[in-house]
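Methods: example folding runs. The two proteins below were folded one after another, and each record is reproduced exactly as written to the output file, sequence line first and structure-token line second.
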Amino acid sequence: MPTVGYEQKLTSLTAKGFTLVELLVVVCIILLLAVLLFPSLKDMRQRAQGAACASNLRQIGILTGIYAADHDDRFPPAWTGAGMWLETLIAETQYAGSLAQARAAMSVGNPMSRCPVRLRTDAEYSTAFDANNAMYATSDRWWYNYGINYSWLSPIVNGLPAPIRRTAVGKPSQCIYVADGDSENGLAPWLINSLWSGAYPSARHNGRSNVLWVDGHVTAESLSWLTDPTNLKYWQP
């Protein structure tokens, strides 16, 4: 009696195809794997966004060093009659002092000035920007998501910010410089303050805010820690 060859057996098996039960088992396994992997993928995405934000802050720290070298070792002013601190910093270090060019660069794509985690759409941020910046033309909306510790590093003197020298900070590794600003509240995303709710840092990174310290290192801190009265020493060392 002739034997059935290997190729014939394989053809016979594959010709039968999958049964309904087998297909259901495969689908269930795929769905189970998706359920198990989804939290991990979400966590990976959040970590990547947090890392990108931290990179933005480090770049701000580098630009501050460049700015200070040309401005008597001082921090950028929280605001001037022409603009706010970050656009001033970018203009002075990258665009020969041109605020127009700095604002244009901050208005498109995903510039260094914007955190990758946004709780509103770009259109909503632009609407909030217009509502709170009526003094500026709306052709360029250079909204950004980072705030400066203005009350200590650029305190108000005679109605205007007077930035201090970096050497005046006795413990630069323990002094907050910039953090995720709460641009979602539509008030003052360019400022941070532990005592003013309208300028609290934003804890949009899974309950934490990225913080740039005066010495240039970046950490992620909870809002409760940042606004704890016992930690005021990190805001005003």
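Second run, written to the same file directly after the first:
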Amino acid sequence: MNGTRRTLWMAAGLLATVAGGCGYTTESLWPENVDSVAVPAWQRGRDIYRRGVEMRITEAVVKHIETKTPYKVLERGDADTELSGTVERIVQTVMSYNPDTGRPREIEMTVYASFTWKDLRTGRILLRRQNYPVSGTYITHEPFGRDFFQGSEGIIDDLARRVVEQMQHGWPDRDAPAEE
């Protein structure tokens, strides 16, 4: 009986060791020393001529922070951190043409954004990404035809979701130095 009990304890210890090394954790995915985020209006790069795209991205980022994170979005003077960004460029590529009209049928759009998450209390950069790409396609052909505004909605939402996901623990360059 004594040998059986020892074998069970050894098996339980081995199982705990193996399970503990699988990368699972019960700690929060979000930095716990942060309670709030300021999100100033994103900027447009110098070659972006689509009006309002930066405001749509700002609204989507705020929505995702408030619904997917434990953080509250506040004004800069009241917030612990700030997430600022710039739409660097928007590239559209025609994927297919309507053979009857010669007009574009399907368009791939890639939005390149740069963003920085900064701790306003210490000046430390928590996260920085440059020219972060997010792509998607939309159809311009009837009956599902969409213009740029409608076609970019899903891509903007995807960009905002991915930006907010980057705020989780464990991404590279988390310990970037403070800006001077």
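Comment on the second run: Residues 142 and 163 are 32 Å apart (CA to CA).
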